[in-house]
Specification:
Elements (H helix, E strand, L loop, with lengths): L1 H27 L3 H5 L6 H21 L7
Helix pairs in contact: 1-3
């Protein structure tokens, strides 16, 4: 249904944010999430990392999504 598409879009945005954050870590040793939320060990940062991980798992479904095929 349409609600899954919305969930997947949100998950995709979160996954992209996570990927960009890792890119910043790799290039500049800057963790944006940690910078914004009192370090990578803070509970808020850890929750955000977990949410991004869940978003990545949700996006695994995109690999198997055949609903767009004619």
């Amino acid at each position: 249904g349409g609600e899954m598409k919305t969930l997947q879009k949100i998950a995709l945005v979160l996954t992209i944010i996570g990927a960009l954050n890792w890119g910043m870590v790799g290039l500049f040793e800057i963790d944006i999430v940690a910078s914004l939320f009192n370090g990578s060990d803070s509970i808020i940062s850890r929750i955000i990392y977990i949410i991004i991980a869940i978003a990545g798992i949700i996006n695994i479904g995109l690999l198997f999504d055949t609903s767009d095929r004619k």
